[in-house]
Amino acid sequence: MIKNYLVLFVSVLFINVAKAQDEAPAVVKNQFKINMLFPGIVYEHALSEKNTLYSEVALGLGYRYNSYYGEGNFYLFPLINEQFRHYYNLEKRASKGKRTAFNSGNYIAVSALYNFPSISTNEKYGNYVGSFTIAPLWGLQRTYKGRFNLEFNIGPGVNFDKYDTEFVPVGNFTLGWVIK
Q1: Distance CA 149, CA 179 (A)
Q2: 3-state SS string over the chain?
Q3: What is the pLDDT of residue 25?
Q4: pLDDT value of position 20
Q5: Of these four, 65, 95, 138, 174, which has the most CB atoms within 10 Å of its CB?
Q6: pLDDT at residue 15 above 60?
Q7: What is this structure's pTM?
């Protein structure tokens, strides 16, 4: 009788292990985050097993130098960031025993970013107008125990405003927490 239970237990264990190995890691269906470095809220929605739509509302920080006055000025501006992301290394991370929970992986993305006019102004530096930037990005996201989240992305972009169109570097670094 005990032998039958042991065989049954080992069989169930083997089936569960085999099933777990067949299931490829996938992104989380819905994820909310709070960014602390540059205050903001993020919602990431899964479109498929490896693709997400990332939506962010935050405050950005900029710096402008005026050579006429010989000094610089920091300014704050609200922003909206939309990204289509493709996470490409979830299986590789899982096979190495690394964490993939809460979309912990590397990704490539297409970003559309709208910067609203600055909420802090200085007449010496002119008016900061709203602008729209589109960019391909490479990035990584890691969520650790306690749901602490770190994210970094970078890429070349094209910025449009009412005065100019120019190539710009695009980069973002955030620290925060996954709240759901």
Answers
A1: 10
A2: CHHHHHHHHHHHHHHHHHHHHHCCCCCCCEEEEEECCCCEEEEEEECCCCEEEEEEEEEEEEEEEECCCCEEEEEEEEEEEEEEEEECCHHHHHHCCCCCCCCCEEEEEEEEEEECCCCCCCHHHCCCCCEEEEEEEEEEEEECHHHEEEEEEEEEEEEECCCCEEEEEEEEEEEEEECC
A3: 86
A4: 42
A5: 174
A6: no
A7: 0.79
Predicted local confidence at residue 68, as pLDDT = 79
Joined tokens for residue 36: 């602390």
Tokens 């391909």 identify what position? 136
First to last CA, the chain: 46
